Amino acid sequence: MHYAVAKAAVEGLSHGYAQRLAADGIGVNCTVPTLIAHANGSPQVDPAAIPVRSHGGRDEVAHAVLLAARTGFMTGQSLHLNGGTYFT
User: Could you tell me if 51 and 35 are in contact, meaning their C-beta atoms sit under 8 angstroms apart?
Assistant: First the structure.
């Protein structure tokens, strides 16, 4: 529960700063990676349960961050990297 609250706070903070800084030409976005494999292994979720049928990787996160950094028109967005899986 604490982790989910912290993620929601980061999204809210990002959206607030995006609104304040947009007029200055500063874009603020955040990435929300879920089910990402890392050096210690993959999350404990069967890939068959993920719509894209695999865990994400560091490269997917890096590409999303670069996308957000390279566009000046996108601001206030949360990029959900979740393979099509949404937790409720």
Answer: no
Q: Which portions of the chain are predicted below pLDDT 50?
A: 88
- Using alpha carbons only, what angle is made at residue 8 by residues 3 and 13, rounded to the nearest 5 degrees? 125
Give the dihedral sign, CA 2/12/83/72.
Answer: negative
Structure confidence by residue, pLDDT tens digits, 34-47: 888 887 877 888 88
pTM > 0.85: no
Count Cβ atoms within 10 A of the Cβ of residue 35 and give its class: 0-12 exposed, 13-18 middle, 19 or more buried: buried
Domain spanning 2-81 has what CATH number?
3.40.50.720
Which residues form the catalytic set?
Answer: 3
Q: Rounded to 5 degrees, what angle do the CA atoms 46, 65, 3 make?
A: 55
- CB-CB neighbours of 3 under 10 Å: 7
